[in-house]
Amino acid sequence: MYRPHPFDAMLADALPAGSLFAVGGRVRDELRASFEGVEAPVKDLDYIVTGVPLDALQSRLARLGRVDLVGAAFAVLKVTIDGATVDVALPRRERSTGHGHREFDVQSGPDVSLVDDLARRDFRMNMIARALPSGDLVDPYEGEPDIRARRIDILTPASFEEDPLRMLRAAQFAARFGYELSDATRDAMLASAPLVRTVAAERIYDEFLKLFGQASRPSIGLRLLAETGVLRHIWPELLEGMGVEQNEWHAYDVWEHNLHTLDATSPGDPIVRIAALLHDVGKPRTKDGPHFYRHELVGASMAHEMLTRLRFPSEAVETVEHLVRHHMYNCDPELTDAAVRRFIRRIGPARLERQFALRLADIAGSGLPKRNDENARFEERVWAEMARQPAFAVSDLAIGGAEVIAAMVAHASVPAGYRGDARVGRALAWLLEQVTEVPERNTRETLLALLDDYLAETPCASSAVASRIGNNG
What we know:
Elements: H1 6-14, E1 20-23, H2 25-36, E2 46-49, H3 54-61, E3 66-71, E4 76-81, E5 84-89, E6 92-96, E7 104-108, H4 114-119, E8 129-131, E9 137-138, H5 143-148, E10 151-152, H6 159-162, H7 165-177, E11 180-181, H8 183-192, H9 201-214, H10 219-227, H11 236-239, H12 254-263, H13 270-278, E12 287-288, E13 291-292, H14 295-309, H15 314-325, H16 337-347, H17 352-364, H18 374-388, H19 401-410, H20 422-437, H21 444-457, H22 462-472
Parallel strand pairs: 2-5, 10-11
Antiparallel strand pairs: 1-2, 1-8, 3-4, 4-5, 6-7, 8-9, 12-13
């Protein structure tokens, strides 16, 4: 069902009749909305203009707003009208001259047909255009029947050789839309699987982000990548879990458990979903009979390497690594208040929700009924403690490094002019532990008194300081 956008009429009025076409995911998603009843939000507006030279196109579009040429080789224009930007391009044809979608012979301009432009796209379901402003469908490669059949099909067996990234796109489309691969597409992926190693890590990361962020069941895409041999060239560590049996608390082997845990998470937070997929990745390398000793530590290290290899942002790598390392936390609801506060410090207040989400997914991914309500009761304890807002970090203490340095100088532990070193951090960490035991201690007066006791009982290497001063003199 065609859903006109205000830009459609504005662009059509500025261009020769019959020259403007909507292309890209918008057209595909409009058809999906019509056939499948799914939402079809317009996220990206992409247009092709046929039969108009680039300079003439720029001149006509300049009447509407700002025009920026961003792809001189591809004749792509960014048109900004009232603060919103759309892509308007001349049709182009491409011929691959190298691996990894890095070397192409590109021709663009008014002499290239719309049919040629559509043919360069990845799958038939994306080789569809819509004439504007009429809304008539232009479908030379029968993409509409593929959408009706919920099928992903390629135009030529060389499709994945021309751009191996398309294999990742096939996987994320299959998972996001619930589509099946045609036999031709699956066969071509099997034949081209090793070529995924030629694809830039950043481009693989982009496709994985769509898979983990948007698919209701990301495991569909990962199973597809495993079955076609693509996954072993990206994350072979995941495949180590195939056939690795677990103890009586799990119904699946490690591979299946990781996938079921992944699917038990909700779309929208790729970090939690990736942590769910990788939380037990270290088990095959630590298996000792029915046990997997310290698998969370091995898995955290593996997760770090796997994500870094695909150029995930450092913050994402650090967070996933942290969640994996701590996913075996003790959830005994009878822990002391101080132990609960230490748990919060160890996990970090900002990561609690994700850590709890991972635990719930892990339980669901076991394939067995939930055994008890310990996790729910423990989480209630944690959130109740959070509501009391005790100190969970050195920065929450009522005194800081300046007061510690002043106290050290007053105790003659260090000379005047001392600016601090690791000893200041140790003193603050000790004070934080005292406050963790008894939150009411977090007042300036109490902490200064505790600090005096600490410095009296723990000389800050004053003799060593004097020795160094003497030697330097």
